Amino acid sequence: MSTTVILTKAEFLTHWLGHRALTRRTIEKFPEPDLFSYNIGGMRTFADLIKELLSIAEPGLRGIVQQKEEPYNHDIPLNTKADLLARWDEDTPKIIELFGQIPEEDFHKDYNLFGEYKFPIYSNLLYFVDNEIHHRAQGFVYLRALGIEPPFFWDRG
Amino acid sequence: MSTTVILTKAEFLTHWLGHRALTRRTIEKFPEPDLFSYNIGGMRTFADLIKELLSIAEPGLRGIVQQKEEPYNHDIPLNTKADLLARWDEDTPKIIELFGQIPEEDFHKDYNLFGEYKFPIYSNLLYFVDNEIHHRAQGFVYLRALGIEPPFFWDRG
């Protein structure tokens, strides 16, 4: 596709990494027990929402790069805040590395994400970020309900 | 900028409109009184969050197109669910029209959004969508707390 670029591949990655930095700060704000036990309205705990994000970002990208359509597994054995943050930090450089391996020419090719969601790769990647924003925002409400001020939404540094 | 396009202008718009459809369905799910009175942890009501979105999307785009740096005003006099939905529906075709007027070549030019936020236009537009996902997700938690099932996150039709 050759027309004017409205968003470069590098800009998309920077955008995503900014969101990851904000999500990391959101995890940090939770008191340890609440991270694994607090919920509202029968929803999942914030730790479980974070495990979903962990099971999508790096594994999803790896699937795209290696063309392996393995199902996702949200049930990751991470049981402390330090474990969640350590995995988050381990995944970030892997995400940068894997994202870099997707040729720009492939962003409009279909990929059957997790063997289930067949969409163009650009659409899969937008979903990763959207889903992270969505679940992190739920964490913001949990924090407010716990009387804790969330990080600033616009701060992505 | 001439390299391979990872996301076209039309795809970005389709992505945004899909989110707008989902946000509209989220408004519809709220019982009228809760929309204007229910909150968690001292946060704004979902009606107030929607007014913020209304004060950003169409006015922000209009500012970009007309190069007017007017401040935003979240305090919009809409006091019923029907009013909020009607304004949402009025704005959608305006958004399509205004978005279409932004030349692809301009997406990397800086624009001082609302006279306050000086970023490239692509970054302003990503913020509009991110902020909508963020606040809508907070509405999802309100709905769950009220015992109401939110719409499906992945359904953008």
UniProtKB/TrEMBL annotation, chains A, B:
It comes from the Bacteria. Transmembrane segments: none annotated. Pfam families: DinB. Keywords: Metal-binding. The keyword Metal-binding applies. InterPro entries: DinB, DinB/YfiT-like. The keyword Acetylation does not apply. A divalent metal cation binds at H135. One of its GO terms (molecular function) is metal ion binding. Belongs to the DinB family. This is DinB family protein.
